[in-house]
Amino acid sequence: MPDAADDQQLNLPSLVVILVISGLIIRYFFFSSSSTQSPRSGRAAAAGSDPAALMRAREAAAERIQQMFPQVDRRTALWDLQRTGGNVAATTERILAGRLETPPITFQPPPPPGGGNAGANVTTPQSKPATPSPSHPDLITRYNLKDKLNAPLDEPEGSGKTSGKGWSTNREERQSLLQRRRDQMILEARRKMEAKIAAEKAAGQS
């Protein structure tokens, strides 16, 4: 009998300790999980009640999808996210399976946030070419023919004379002759262009 009483005295404290530990474990797992889920559900409810927050969440999800699948455009991603309730995993599975549907023409999502700034940034460089860019000098300036432009056009030396006797054996004479012919061709082209411009102006005024 004394042994039975001693066993009962020993078992009662151990049972109490086991019950306390079990209660703490149950409270930790169940109540902590419910407490962590409640803020998420609260945020989800808030997003569902706020259209702007819901659209921002879908924009973020569409951006994530485009980062993973660059071939998917924003409109298609937003359309599928709207159908799946913003479930990125479901949309990803459809893309991998090739079951992503094309959105209807009536579905026109709002422009992405910051789209106006992006458009301004794109159009700004288009106005920059108004500043004149440095151009290469024309042939008249390059070969210093401004003084010869208003002078009468002379026949280059050797144009008729050298044809009968062929090219000169002197290298300097050949180079000088080629240079004169080059200058003559440049001046003739410039005069023809100026005459054409003058004729067009006269025709426009008449």
Can you put this structure into words, describing what you see?
This protein has 206 residues and is mainly α. Among the domains are: 50-110, Helicase, Ruva Protein, domain 3 (Orthogonal Bundle), CATH 1.10.8; 139-205. Helices cover 72% and strands 0% of the residues. The protein is built from nine helices and no strands. Helix 1 (2-49) crosses helix 2 (51-68) and helix 2 crosses helix 3 (74-84). InterPro entries: CUE, UBA-like_sf. Residues 57-100 form the CUE domain. Its main location: membrane.
Structural classification: mainly alpha
* Strand/helix succession: HHHHHHHHH
Give the mean pLDDT. Answer: 70
End-to-end distance: 138 Å
Q: Helix share of residues? A: over 70%
CA radius of gyration: 44 Å
The backbone outline, from C-alpha atoms, is elongated
Instruction: Profile the largest sheet.
Output: none
Number of strands: 0
Report the β-strand fraction as a percent range. under 5%
Question: Any chance you could write out the topology, listing elements then pairs?
Answer:
Elements: H1 2-49, H2 51-68, H3 74-84, H4 88-97, H5 115-127, H6 139-142, H7 146-149, H8 161-165, H9 171-205
Family: Belongs to the CUE1 family.
Protein name: Coupling of ubiquitin conjugation to ER degradation protein 1
Pfam families: CUE
Name a few traits of the molecule.
single chain, 206 residues, mainly alpha, Helicase, Ruva Protein, domain 3, elongated, membrane, transmembrane, endoplasmic reticulum, CUE, ubl conjugation pathway
